Write the structure tokens for this entry.
Amino acid sequence: MGIALENISKSFGSFQAVDRVNLEIAPGALIALLGPSGCGKSTLLRLIAGLETPDRGRLWLGGQDATHQSVAKRNIGFVFQHYALFKHLTIRQNIAFGMEIRAISAAKIATKVAELLDLIQLNGLGDRYPAQISGGQRQRVALARALAIDPQVLLLDEPFGALDAKVRKDLRAWLRQLHDRTRVTTVFVTHDRSDAMAVADKIVIMNQGKIEQIGTPAEIYDHPANAFVMSFLGPVNILPSSLNIFHQNGFATTAPKMFLRPQDIAIETTANTTTVAANVDRVVHLGSEIQAELALADGQTIVAHLTKERFAELQLEPQQQVFVKPKAAKSFPIDYSI
Ligand code: ATP
């Protein structure tokens, strides 16, 4: 089922949590709402669920005006960050819960629960209680419970927020596969850019109640609409555009600042007409890459990321003099919210 938000706004007292949001989500899509804490992601999700009512605007579900439809009629599955499983019920009973209150026959419930246990790869654990399985497994049960009512839309609010990094990564891949099989329209709220990039077809970037950009992970990373999006999606050096290094390399602009990803800075050991001198302040091993913190002659500092191979070629040492130039840089007409 498709979802459309038309000029939706929501305030709490004088605070505008969601500000004139327009968004269309295609049937069967998996989209991520990504943004910093307090930007209005959860409020937007709760508006779709019917747990909040908009002050203004309209919400369409499957082409029908659902702005004032009750939560129950929307047929939406919801999963929260903190697994709200019933402690005194087994995994099987937890998954069956939503179907039981809908008075579905016992035989149908048993078949559906078996299917869902298979889908979440927890066959054989149906008779355990939530305390007897891991956090990652509990989140899979929460998803199965949400899917048990055959929802037309699945809403996930920071579903991996409470899990450690390894389990989180596994669950991301698992969620993507699950979605490819079920194709239930899914909206996934996260403040973690790697969660969003790894899982979603499209990412909606929010800031202060508004949408900053909508696009595929590659589109928003490679073509950020503004300085906020670029900075939110990864580390960035922000330098005055008046520095010679930009003119020398054909990045002349009237915008006051230039934005460079750490991997877009080339480091050389010999000078040429396109480089400027820099001093290595610090070298940090980040695992798959090396971070070099460099000081330019005018006191500006920049952070560069190098592959291990390039680092080995350069043999960088603290205090060493090197020569740097930007391989890529962006500027934006208005750079706000940095
Ligand atoms: P987080 O990632 O921290 O959960 P979020 O982007 O999901 O943040 P929301 O939960 O949507 O943000 O909240 C947006 C803003 O609205 C916050 O400043 C929050 O304090 C405020 N807010 C949310 N719900 C209410 C409420 N029921 N009453 C008053 N203010 C609220």
Summary: The two ends are 37 Å apart (CA to CA). The longest helix spans residues 165-182. Residues 237-326 form a domain with the OB fold (Dihydrolipoamide Acetyltransferase, E2P) fold (CATH 2.40.50.140).
